Amino acid sequence: MNFIEPTRRQCLRSLIGSSILFPAVLSDLAAAEAPAMGPLTPKSPHFPAKAKRVIMVFATGGVSHIDSFDPKSSKKGRDGSGKDKLMGCVFPTRPAKKTGTVVSDLFPHLRDSMEEICLIRSMKSAHFDHTEAAVGMHTGSPTFARPSMGSWLSYGLGTVNQNLPSFIVIAPHLPYGGTQVYASDFLPAYHQGTRVIPGTEPIANLAPRTTRQKIQQMELSLVDSLNQKHLQSRRDDSQLAARIKSYETAFQMQTAGPEAFDLSNEDERALSMYGLKPGETKSFAWQCIIARRLAERGVRFIELVDSGSRPNWDSHGDMKEHQPLAKAADQPLAALIQDLKQRGMLDETLIVWATEFGRTPTKEGKFGRGHHGDCFSIWLAGGGVKAGFVLGETDELGRSIVRDKIDVHDLHATILHQMGIDHKRLTYRHAGRDFRLTDVHGRIVKEILA
């Protein structure tokens, strides 16, 4: 009887039940040359970096700058009852003890941490619609599909931990813009963000389906051998190279993943600082402490999507809808800053808190506000930015920028700069032209750099 050697495809089909799949494996893989040294091998920056990693916090829905970090007067005539419906901050406000920066009572813990925070009150949004503005904040392009900032940093710098993805997104719900906010688009697929969903199984299908480790190792060794043999005659096929890399990372994550998401070795003091109850896995506090653990383990770009309970921060009807969302995020964010500082990691970790746009200075609905892209507030901490500093100013109503306008391209250029990247030199050839995160725009906001 003649033995017919099985094809690579047949073997993969028979063994696929033992493989671990996550989004980067299943995505459409763009064509690009795969570096011989390995696509996620750590790469040298263009110049010495101030930060080694980024933790981005995205409050989806549009946080009101007027009711949070740029509060405006609610004196007579600005309570929403007048003909023009002008409405100042609906929450009490007070200055931070050490810096004097006025912040509303929505964020009391962050107000007490303002000496560590660099606040920008003069951001201009990429768009006034949720989806376009959210995608613009992440990719620099509100209208065309482009790689996200996390993907660009993964492409430009690689990762120091080959057992975990270089770019992880913790998102209980997808923000406006969906998966495009962490997509790699035309960059190779292994730079796409891996989504983690808070819960008892943060990454689905991570546990191997076979219970015998040696059997699984034999199966995966066979798959790898077939893959490499298949790749020998297809050196220009980066789609295949990306798929192989995704399988390799998925296998390594069977050990590294569960350990990173296991809080059983965190002491009660740490949990209490974040406001996290033992065994709790679905709160924003869990997201924040996991972000610190991923940062410790060398993940290059970590994003936390603060979607809260629906309808997230999009408070058209009543600004008091902001209260439960702020309460859930305030203490954990302040704790993340404090925790990183205590561990000596804050100086090399750039935290960026952002939203897609602000809210109007006029009332909408009962006591809500509409979308407002002309000005809003964001803040940064660590990573070589000035602590206890405020940049920019809006008018007395919170309607327009008076001084130091910063747009999304400027923000991206500055983040890349702190990571040791010249935003004009981080390019990728696609469709006959060189693309970059900042397109043909962007300036480094040197005013906020320490």
UniProtKB/TrEMBL annotation:
One Pfam family linked to the record: DUF1501
Sequence ranges of Basic and acidic residues compositional bias: 69-86
Residues covered by region (Disordered): 69-88
InterPro entries in UniProt: Alkaline_phosphatase_core_sf, DUF1501
UniProt name for this protein: Sulfatase
Organism, scientific name: Rosistilla carotiformis
